[in-house]
DNA sequence: TTGGCAACCTGTAACGTTTCAGTATATTGA
DNA sequence: TCAATATACTGAAACGTTACAGGTTGCCAA
């Protein structure tokens, strides 16, 4: 079955989508000349160039992606690789929009490549590399020793990671300064008189787990507060688990009077746990939490929040991959975003 | 610049990605035969077919997308078109995962095509159709008279809408039964003694605005309760606006004792507004809200919720587009999902 | 024996693009 | 004046795939 409705020939009539051949016919030039004229090649006369570009614009010529891709191998695709189970909800939408903003006026398309719990996180990456499905890749949940980053470096495909790695290899990344966040959180709690602090960590194994834990520990000793260990949960646990274990913790005699939480969803559970234990937020205990949308202050006005902007992260990551694809030194495409101040309830 | 690192020739050695030519060389057959053997064409001998398929699997042959696309026009791409400003956060992530689940074991890729406030919603659709960038499209925020659906029908590109249209034209859709939701909500409120009800509607202009309003009105007269008009906001308004106007409403003498909310984010604002007015949820007023993740019960235990499953919506929409692409009658690819019961706080 | 036919396989062309290796014309240098 | 050279353009080939229009072989009926 031939997909064409009518035979086109060289006549350039009809409603078919224009190709280089159409342009060549209309301008009376060769296909090669047209192709080069459109990309401002120097060996094409200035007038010819303008003429071709004018006609191209007039008839709305758009290069055929399949043609380009087949010939050059360039896909004009950026792939965002996401974990279907563990990714934070607002992260997904914000980062997509952030990426979109940046690639909107480029020829790039964004494809979303998900993988699930059951799979090796390397699987989708291998697929992308082996099939050459993308010119660049964005991954999240970076690990200190990240096999995905290593694999992509080995195979020479440009990528950017959300979060840093610690492999001594330079690659683009964007990260939120979680060391600073945890530190600020501790200092703020200390400032309002809290001395016994607990931390609800990021998932063990991700790089920013370490950053957060270190920021927390360093600030603790700086302000002379003490830590109440709370290693039984991380923000990757379910709402129910976090809630239950927080309640357990808060019923103990040596319970904390301040908690630092690395994610908004976990914070909802933490607060529920606190209240399950019959305690009151703001009186018996204060909680500082990261959030990426303005919801926590509506939830409990007593919550102390620090904002992390995922849309910004998306934009930065997109800029970074595009930069690398465009030939910029990967080591220079790294950015770290500083946390906002700890914000108390605004009336 | 030629992208190939080494000249391949016909020798099938090296680390290049295998093509039909490679397979042809290895099996000693012609390229055409290999191509047909892989798609189980009847004019290929049974043994040859098995042999080719075996070799193909062994060396991990994967058809080149650009080749197929160029030759056949088939992109193997589904595009999800999203509004960057107005889309509900959890909607984006859940629907993406829902779609992904379905296309995971197909050759399809998912591309996300966003558009913003400033643009005509038809723009991205036109782009997709004109450039032939996708085999199928999923759109959200369906309107009774939806120019996007009309355009795609006219241009013969398969699509599915999240929400129904009312143009008398058959096309695939998935929708949540918001008429039933609003009705159930009203009946539940009546059952617990609420008589003066207000509705926070979906965005005016979307089809499900009408469904919701009608379900609300019909149930009101069924149970003999009265409506407190609250037309100054919809769930597309900002948190601040909803909060402020809810507070205003709740300070009036004729304030409602029951509110039905069409979205979780709006509900947070509504509750804040209620409390701003010095009233207490569950005592002075009850609120029934739709939600798509389990957060509202953590927020205020007194909230009454109905769950809407966006991941399911994503799966259904994907199945629908794929069905249409596969030749199924579009009119038969329609589904409506019934709301859960109104759930009070679970201990 | 021969013609016909089924079963199985093959080469060529085309999709739209870019690159390579030119060609034709005008311009320059001596 | 003639050759060398720069300028402006061109055709053919190739990327990997599929559709079309054959080609060979073997077998059977006449």
Question: How would you portray this structure in words?
Answer:
The structure is a homodimer of 347-residue chains. Chain A has 347 residues and is an alpha/beta fold. The first copy, chain A, folds into three domains: 20-63, 434 Repressor (Amino-terminal Domain); 74-176 and 310-337, Rossmann fold (3-Layer(aba) Sandwich); 178-307, Rossmann fold (3-Layer(aba) Sandwich). Helices cover 43% and strands 15% of the residues of chain A. Chain A contains 13 helices and eleven strands. Chain A has helices spanning 20-27, 31-38, 46-59, 65-72, 89-103, 122-131, 147-154, 178-191, 207-223, 239-251, 264-276, 296-299, 310-325; strands spanning 77-83, 109-115, 136-139, 159-162, 173-176, 196-200, 226-227, 258-261, 286-291, 304-307, 334-337. A six-stranded parallel β-sheet of chain A has the order 2-1-3-4-5-11, sandwiched between helices. Chain A has a five-stranded parallel β-sheet with strand order 7-6-8-9-10, sandwiched between helices. In chain A, helix 7 (147-154) links the parallel strand 3 and strand 4. The longest helix of chain A is centred in the middle third of the chain and has 17 residues, at 207-223. The model of chain A is unreliable at 1-13 (pLDDT under 50). The interface between A and B is large, with 50 and 49 residues. Chain B binds a DNA duplex (30 and 30 nucleotides) through helix 2 and helix 4.
């Amino acid at each position: 079955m031939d997909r064409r409705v009518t035979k086109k020939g060289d006549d350039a009539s009809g409603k078919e989508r224009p190709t280089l051949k159409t342009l060549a016919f209309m301008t009376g030039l060769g296909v090669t000349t047209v192709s080069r004229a459109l990309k401002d090649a120097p060996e094409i006369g200035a007038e010819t160039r303008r003429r071709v570009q004018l006609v191209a614009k007039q008839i709305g010529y758009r290069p055929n992606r399949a043609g380009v891709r087949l010939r050059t191998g360039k896909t004009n695709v950026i792939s965002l690789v996401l974990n279907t189970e563990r990714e934070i909800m607002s992260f997904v939408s914000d980062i997509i929009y952030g990426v979109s903003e940046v690639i909107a006026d480029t020829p790039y398309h964004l494809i979303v490549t998900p993988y699930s719990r059951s799979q090796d996180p390397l699987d989708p990456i291998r697929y992308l590399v082996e099939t050459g499905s993308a010119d660049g890749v964005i991954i999240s949940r970076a690990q200190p020793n990240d096999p995905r980053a290593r694999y992509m470096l080995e195979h020479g495909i440009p990528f950017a990671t959300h979060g840093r790695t610690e492999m001594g290899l330079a690659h683009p990344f964007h990260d939120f300064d979680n060391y600073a966040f945890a530190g600020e959180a501790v200092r703020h709690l200390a400032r309002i008189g809290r001395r016994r602090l607990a931390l609800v960590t990021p998932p063990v194994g991700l790089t920013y787990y370490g950053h957060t834990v270190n920021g927390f520990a360093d600030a603790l000793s700086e302000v002379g507060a003490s830590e109440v260990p709370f290693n039984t949960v991380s923000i990757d646990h379910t709402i129910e688990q976090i809630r239950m274990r927080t309640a357990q913790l808060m019923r103990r005699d040596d319970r904390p009077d301040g908690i630092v939480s690395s994610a908004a969803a976990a914070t909802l559970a933490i607060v529920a746990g606190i209240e399950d234990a019959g305690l009151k937020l703001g009186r018996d205990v204060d909680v500082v939490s990261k959030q990426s949308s303005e919801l926590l202050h509506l939830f409990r006005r007593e919550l102390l929040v620090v904002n992390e902007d995922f849309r910004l992260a998306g934009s930065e990551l997109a800029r970074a991959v595009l930069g690398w694809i465009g030939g910029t030194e990967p080591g220079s495409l790294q950015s770290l975003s500083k946390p906002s101040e700890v914000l108390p309830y605004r009336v």
